[in-house]
Amino acid sequence: MLEIKNLNYAVIENGAKKNILNDINLTFKDNKIYVITGHNGSGKSTLLKIIMGIAQKTDGQILFNGQDISNISINERAELGISYAFQQPVTFKGLKVKDLLDIATSEKHNLSAMCDILSKVGLCAKDYIDRALDDKLSGGELKRIELAVTLARKGKLNMFDEPEAGIDLWSFENLTALFENLKGATNIIVSHQKRILEIADEIILMSDGKVVLQGNREKVLPKLSINACGRLREVNNG
Amino acid sequence: MDKIDREILERVADLHKVPTGSFNIRKNGESVARNSTKDIEIVPKKNKSGIDIIVKDGVKNKSVHIPVILTLGDFHDLVYNDFYIGKDCDVTIIAGCGIHNKTCKDSQHDGVHSFHIGKNSKVKYVEKHYGTGEGSGKKILNPITKIYMKEGSCMNFESIQIGGVSSTIRKTYAKIYDHCLLNIKENILTTDNQYAKTYFKVELLGENSKCDVVSHSVAEGQSYQEFVSDMIGKNKSFGHVECDGILMDEGRIVSIPKIDAISKDASLVHEAAIGKIAGDQLIKLMSLGLSQEMAEQTIIKGFLYN
């Protein structure tokens, strides 16, 4: 279980303090899928980065299974079982797909094990494990590898930042099936997409660095207005 | 051979024992072991120090090892090795030099290697350089590589400096004719106050000649590296030069690329990127459980040796 208490995050911009996250209080229970949604700039990705330790809170507290993780490093949080799939996958000159998978799981995998991991995101291990993680891979391929690496960690808390972005030929059905099969963990997905929102147990709507609406899917989803492309447009009044 | 010799051979030529096939092991200016085969003959030069390596026409899937060991201080070794590769060959050549200098005087090896590659032949050439020994004397390596490629030939040249070399000036000259492909991969690590300069001059003389030069370097400590390339397209050809450098500590890397498409049908590209390890790369690996130090080591190891 992840508990966020009175979390604030501010930056100094042009000499003035700017609040990015304002007094966030959230509880994420085990075995549930939470989808955080909201317009660009609402603070969704920043919240994930603070949970992972990539950005440092201004004040407040983050408790993971009762332990205060607010001030420990990124890798210490990873060792506790927190996983994070980046919105923009990182490329490396010199690291291969298999290297990242080995690092993610702290073990050397054979082809069969790599196949089990990569087939979950629709990639054939034979074609990919020796590929360099550089810009010769398409955005969609990098995104799927990012998902596979995160899933391979079998984290207790899995966070995905806009996992649907650029998944190209791979279908949404496969993606949503992946998340639905993540049992035994807490899962937080940042997304604008209706089809991702539809698999949520709970939806959290953020706006201007605040949580403005939260609750179970049946309660929250009807209040969100979705455009023709299936993306969040606005919140319906009332 | 003693323990130090064996360690050097392992580091520069991946040799765990005396190789089979053709080889020449040079130590402190003299050949200490040599073997020729019917396919690859090694002949000592008569008028100067060095050997001719002669690969007969049509020889495929064969290799030749010519490592050099230097264990003396106050010693300057100069050697000329000429490779004559016949036509329709496919061979691997493992060179490399390791210097162990425990004295306070300099130890230097200058290897001048010329490759004459016959029509439609394929050559893989790996040259690794390594320095060790705690003496204050410098470990200096100044290789010169001259490459002449006949029609339809291909060469994959890996030039690797794996550490411990105080100073190096590495020069490569290539003349490439019709339908030839030259791939050069250079990986250099410098630390402390080490100095490394590499210079490439590639002339794309033939129609449909191609050359790809990719340099990955890491400068740690207060070390200084300079990458200079001069690629000239004199025919319908393609050339690509890439210099990527990672800076650690106070290290510095200077890249000076020059491309000159004398022929209007030549297409030449250069890219260069120098800077510290990207923050998002460190964060990604740390989010997978590596400490910052481990993440840095993993990135550098992959960058230099993958």
Characterization of the model:
- The complex is a heterodimer of chains A (238) and B (306).
- Chain A has 238 residues and is an alpha/beta fold.
- Chain A has a single domain (2-235), classed as Rossmann fold.
- Chain A is built from 9 helices and 12 strands.
- Chain A has helices spanning 44-52, 74-79, 97-105, 111-119, 125-128, 139-152, 172-180, 194-197, 217-220; strands at 2-13, 16-28, 33-38, 59-64, 67-68, 82-85, 157-161, 186-190, 202-207, 210-216, 224-226, 232-235.
- Chain A has a 6-stranded mixed beta sheet with strand order 6-7-8-3-9-10, with helices on both faces. A 4-stranded antiparallel beta sheet of chain A has the order 2-1-4-5, covered by helices on one side.
- In chain A, a hairpin with a 5-residue loop joins strand 11 and strand 12 (232-235).
- In chain A, helix 3 packs parallel to helix 6.
- Chain A is globular, with a radius of gyration of 18 Å.
- Chain A starts with a strand and ends with a strand.
- The mean pLDDT of chain A is 90.
- With 306 residues, chain B is mainly beta.
- Chain B has 3 domains: 1-147, no CATH class; 166-275, no CATH class; 279-306, no CATH class.
- Chain B is built from 3 helices and 22 strands.
- Chain B has helices at 3-13, 279-287, 292-305; strands spanning 22-27, 30-35, 40-44, 50-55, 60-65, 68-70, 75-85, 90-94, 97-100, 107-117, 122-132, 139-141, 144-149, 154-161, 167-176, 181-190, 195-204, 209-219, 224-233, 237-247, 252-261, 266-275.
- In chain B, the strands form 2 sheets. In chain B, strands 3, 4, 7, 10, 12, 13, 15, 17, 19 and 21 form a 10-stranded mixed beta sheet that branches. A 6-stranded parallel β-barrel of chain B has the order 1-5-8-11-9-6.
- In chain B, a hairpin with a 5-residue loop joins strand 3 and strand 4.
- In chain B, helix 2 crosses helix 3 (292-305).
- The longest helix of chain B is centred in the last third of the chain and has 14 residues, at 292-305.
- Chain B starts with a helix and ends with a helix.
